[in-house]
Specification:
By secondary structure, this protein is an alpha+beta fold. The chain has 9 helices and 26 strands. Helices cover about 20% and strands about 35% of the residues.
Length: about 450
């Protein structure tokens, strides 16, 4: 009761002071307020309008006779921002009409891929600007971010295409202009183009997943249904200047397709110093370093390289790490990498190795965090690498389990990939195969 009485007395004193000085301070001297310090049992004085911490803020509110300021809502802040943009920052059409087109291209080449496609919808002039040779040249000279992933799910005998943008962590679902009967698998990529191979292993297609342009290249001359390993390299700075596609079989037969000549050719016989058959690891996509393709071999364990420009073959006998399964090659800044499942007893872990050029041995450089690997304990895991250039996408499957993760070879960062679901559907898509590609809106198939 004593505390209530003291509080009533305090309120009465404040009211008397307000009645006494409320109408005078506008033209006279600032009134002096006395604040009670309940914590230390003392009296503090301060002038109105002074800024001495909490007491000053209380006096400022009392002097203005208003309630404390409330937090503005997001709608209010957006309204203020829009009003400022509409009034002071309106674009003058007389200025922007004379804006140089080459400067437009310089700015556009540095935009994210999603922003570039929104840019194309502004007008026909801007859309045609992106298809010019000058824009293609400038786009190739600007360093861009992480690669995207082109994946396909084979459900109900239909090519369901899904592209993953790791920078936005978002799936896109473009359409592929193929007949429903032509089931294809992505086998290689270069310069923003993806090489597709049908199930007969005879017909090849080149497409740009961003623009959905598609080109069927001449079928190879050998019989169909023979399993091949396929690689792809650029012959110029961009894919528009030329690219080559190469396939290789276990018996040593191989052909190279030249986009400039639009034909397949047999560069020469397989060197006798390399024993046949090769026992290629078809689960591992070849990796390209410059004009050289690297193929994974199982017997003998190692790597087989072929320089497309010189036609030179080199075989490297490199023993694999123990207890390794589902391994595949990868590439990072010109270095040959290896990724695979390390299985021992009931424990399973994803590990990354780098090929040492001096010793020709695999050196472990990183592995998946242990807390992630605990989820695989006791399970029969299978791994598929869906992208092997700079940024890896790994599909980890077991009974009633399917996980997609990415690994950045530069930052050594592991990230989980959100579930892939078709638009207007809640059904999770199981990724069958895929490859990484560098998104390039100007690449022509």
């Amino acid at each position: 009761m004593g505390e209530v009485a003291a509080l009533r007395q305090l309120v009465g004193q404040v009211q008397e002071l307000w009645d006494l000085y409320g109408a005078v301070h506008a033209h006279g001297p600032l009134p002096r307020w006395y604040l009670l310090d309940f914590e230390h049992g003392s009296i503090k004085d301060d002038y109105c309008g002074g800024r001495t911490g909490y007491n000053s803020e209380v006096l400022k509110i009392m002097e203005a006779n208003q309630s404390p300021p409330r937090k503005r809502t997001r709608r209010d802040r957006n309204r203020e921002k829009a009003s400022c943009l509409n009034s002071a920052d309106a674009m003058n059409p007389d200025i922007w009409r004379e804006f140089p087109e080459d400067l437009f291209q310089t700015v556009i080449t540095r935009l994210p891929v999603a922003a570039i496609f929104r840019f194309r919808t502004v007008c026909r002039k801007w859309s045609s600007l992106l298809g010019s040779d000058n824009f293609s040249q400038q786009y190739s000279e600007v360093p861009h971010g992480m690669p995207w992933f082109f994946t396909i799910t084979h459900e109900n005998a239909i090519n369901n295409v899904a592209m993953y943008d790791p920078s936005l962590k978002k799936w896109h679902h473009p359409s592929v202009p193929l007949a429903p009967a032509n089931i294809v698998i992505p086998v290689a990529s270069a310069g923003g183009l993806v090489c597709l191979l049908d199930l007969s292993h005879r017909n090849f297609y080149i497409c740009n997943p961003l623009t959905q342009s598609l080109k069927e290249i001449p079928p190879r001359s050998v019989e169909a249904w023979s399993r091949v390993s396929v690689g792809m390299v650029l012959t110029g700075r961009t894919s528009n200047e030329g690219y080559k596609v190469m396939w290789l079989r276990n018996d040593g037969n191989h052909e190279v397709y030249d986009s400039v000549q639009n034909m397949w050719s047999q560069p020469g016989n397989f060197p006798p110093s390399i024993n046949l058959p090769l026992a290629l690891n078809f689960r591992s996509q070849p990796v390209a370093v410059g004009s050289t393709l690297y193929f994974m071999c199982s017997e003998p364990e190692g790597v087989l390289s072929y320089d497309v420009s010189t036609g030179i073959w080199i075989q490297f006998i490199i023993p694999l790490p123990l207890h390794l399964t589902d391994h595949t090659l990868a590439e990072f800044q010109g270095r040959v990498m290896l990724v695979g499942l390390l299985c021992k007893n009931a424990a399973t872990c994803v590990c990354i190795w780098e090929l040492q050029k001096m010793t020709l041995l695999w050196k472990e450089v990183d592995r998946m965090p242990n807390i992630w690997c605990l989820e695989f304990y006791g399970k029969h895991m299978r791994m598929t690498c869906l992208g092997n250039s700079g940024l890896l996408m790994l599909s980890l499957k077991a009974k009633r389990m399917n996980r997609l993760v990415t690994y950045n070879l530069l930052s050594k960062e592991w990230q989980k990939v959100p579930d892939c679901m078709l638009p207007c559907s809640r059904k999770k898509q199981w990724i069958a195969c895929g490859t990484a590609f560098s998104p390039c809106p100007s690449a022509l198939a």
